Records
---
Amino acid sequence: MVEPGRFLVHRGFVDERLVFARLGRVVGHDERGIRLWFAHGTPLAVSLSEDGEGIRDMPFKEWTQRRQVLVTKKWRGPNIFMFIPPDRAHSVWWFWGPDGEFVGWYINLEEPSVLWENGALVGVDTTDQDLDLWVHPDRTWEWKDEDEFEERLQFPDHYWVRDAAAVRAEGEHMTKVVESGAFPFDGTWTDFRPDPSWEIPGELPAGWDRPRAR
């Protein structure tokens, strides 16, 4: 088990190519899974085209023809509390508004995460599968990024999702969990607040770009 408060590198891959990495804090780790906290301003690396554009800035066909480079920067999105259950093809993210009010869950469909440790460095590796779900506090839900998912499936020589039906089936399974009000959509962790002593480091730790763990 990874002890609370420890830094962890959360990484995304396309096959063996690293395309995303960000640094989080371990909130907890037990038989249910790993809980992580990613604060606004945390260091990250992301794959961009040489002229600084991202995958969502252009049609996917054009993206496949661009040379891509890993760029280090800061996370400018909202704070994220993330739950990664063991051996499941998803993670669940909690979001709060500026006033601290819980605003919903995000179900990120992804390959099952692999936890690794290399000396002082610990991380989890996965591949994002693009199709996602947004869940409101009243547990009504909607699909997210269906257009991107369908567009990219038209390019099987370049797209990393090889079993679209399995991805959608995982999402449909999760909608039933949501509608039942079962964990983790039962109010668990909606009142979470990070340890005020947690500082945001200035850069990713050495070894963040090591080969993918399997």
---
Amino acid sequence: MLGRAAPDAPGPARDRLTHLAGLLNACGIDAPVTDAIHAEIWTKLAANVASNPLSVITGATLEAMATDPATYAIIRASLDEAIATGAACGISTLKPAEAICAMMAAAGPHETSMLQDFRAGRTLETVAIGDALVALARALGVPTPIIDTLLGLVAFQRRSLAGKEQTS
């Protein structure tokens, strides 16, 4: 850590972190302070890998996907795969899939950033969000058939659209 105290250790760094979180919370920005930052980061990754590719395929918002029985089942299965990968990495305090799905439903009619990028013709974050998790899962022996399928369908959709643009 190059001589610096970790922000989760007691002392001035933790005090500054707590103060900053208080300021952000006072402005209406949810900024919890946690000692389980790895679990929080993994939860964010799991939620993104479960929702972003599916949103590109369906064109649906987080709320719509998390409340529809068919897409909920896909989200739930991909969350289970991502959570299993996190657990294989030694992250034991992961949020359960149901809680992550509830957070998605509570997001309301929010379009994922990947869906927004797709509609705008921008490069998608599938490598950073999906491929990296899948590579790690493979290295740890964790199967990810649902995530693999979602990423494959997004790649197919991109190739399909590129082919249509070339023939137009």
---
Amino acid sequence: MDERPVSPALKIAAGLMFLFLLAPLLVVLPISFSGDDFMAFPPSSWSMKWYGAIFANSVMMNAFWISLALAFVVTVLSLGIGLPAAYALVRLKPPGAEALSNLFSAPLLLPTIVLGLALLLVFAPMGLIGSFQGLVAAHLIVTLPYAVRVLSTALANLPLTVEEAAGMLGARPLTVFFRVTLPMMRSGLVSTTALCFLVSFDEVVLSLFMTGPRLQTLPVAMYNHVDQQADPMAAAISVLLVVLTLAVVLVVDRTAGLTRTFVK
């Protein structure tokens, strides 16, 4: 393949774009190591005390474990529901498959605050506000469209002839699915898992509508903390969340490869 050299102007434009995207981190990172009792940039002194304050704060730690458990449950359910749905849309192709695919993607077209208000009005009479079950249902509405879309793309890009050959050799449909189809769509499964986990863990708008005083996720706890006091703890948590996201990306890269997973 003929590779044309990248022009210097394009390199400069790409560098400026990356700098623009990383600008918030370049401010938050120094603030997280501030020794001050309030947010100030640049800090007047340096300290690691706010990282220690996170682990000493029972509200933040409880919210972290709730967010972790919530993201895990939502990811498992998204895979469990999204995989059969994607298989039905791509392989079985029922009547109105395109309309069903668009219906699955519909929640992504709505502003999150509108979706949160609608869920509040629907879930409140059912007693799901401030409950773990309500949070799971709300997050599923956001993560399922991603799961169905990514898994459908992964299935559509698989060579159908391999599955047909396995069936012609006597393998049953379930055997073909578990021993041929699933291994071939490994990168799609990895990307879906990572995407659903991160979307659920970082979701704040829907969580604000669904949480209560006894149950709050980490993004909601951070929002309430910043609303009450402007210390650098929120910056330290933000840096740790960036590190968590990078860890997930590295896991994806090591297991399936970023190019094969996201550039499909």
---
Amino acid sequence: MRNLTEFTLDLLESLSHIFDDAARWEHTVARLNAFGFKALNMGQFTPKSGILHWARSSMAPDWLKIYAEGGYSDADLVLAQTVQGPESLYIDSGRRLQESNSTTATALYSGLVEHGYRHVFSLVVPCPGNLAMLVALFTDHPEAGAWMTEQASGMRILATVIGTNLGPGTEHGLRPGQDLTPILGTTAPLSRRESEVLHLLADGLRNEQIADAMKISEITVRMHLKSARDKLRAPTREAALVRAVQMGLLSDPPYRNR
């Protein structure tokens, strides 16, 4: 097996000749697969609050569907790094499966092992503007335990290269790769007012109509919408509505219960 440092230097050099983010993503995933890694997850977040601004994955779509439907984000230690650290993490999902003490954790680690994601290494990479990247690498390669422990410094360098050279994709979507943001339950809770604004927006009301219904100014309506969009990692108000529905946040309209 090639040395991790050599592989990382080769990857960095090849990325220096690719300027399109979609192409950089495809190239990186292909190189990782050839080396022995099975999947790459990454996303940008605000430390402490844990709010994700975007996230993308090369994991199998069927596994991501299972992950979403099972609500596994609540037991995901990698995802917890966005709020409470640590900076780097190695997980042997098979070992965690034996030690898990909750139904959700058992299902999560069982699924990871079954889909070939037994070994996980993740790193938080600081970014300008009080932001950070979370980069996670997955594999079931028999040597992965050694890569991720004995060569932990090499893994950190590799994750840092990935985190500083790949972005969210195109301006209007995360292609290629799967968009993780609708399925990750890491958004900060919506306030009552933010939820109310989204409900009224879903009813087809314009900003001025929402302001009249809530007896607040249009500026305040826009402020609540902006805050809700940030929490839901949504680029537009329409996307915020879609993600709120996907996450089950619009099932109980508070403005109708006054």
